[in-house]
Design brief:
Elements: H1 3-17, H2 20-31, H3 38-70, E1 71-72, E2 75-76
Antiparallel strand pairs: 1-2
Helix pairs in contact: 1-2, 1-3, 2-3
């Protein structure tokens, strides 16, 4: 298995896990990975950035939905 394949699997696992701090840590590790080409490193980092952004939007939407469910007519139930 090539180093790129290993990195890709790690990125897949981090995205599947859905823990932002782990994705951020992997972003930093990839920044210093001299074995990957600049293009491969960017591609993997972009996958992580996209997952982080999507997770943030999803979390915000869930919180807004939760707030809407908890409040009816401006009163917290």
């Amino acid at each position: 298995m090539s180093h790129l394949d290993e990195v890709s699997l790690r990125v897949d696992a981090a995205i599947h896990e859905g823990v932002i701090s782990h994705m951020n840590e992997l972003l930093v590790v990839l920044s210093d990975d001299g074995e990957l080409s600049r293009e491969d490193r960017f591609t993997q980092q972009q996958r992580l950035r996209t997952a982080i952004a999507h997770h943030g939007r999803q979390h915000k939407e869930e919180m807004e939905t939760r707030r809407d469910q908890l409040t009816k007519g401006g009163t917290i139930l």
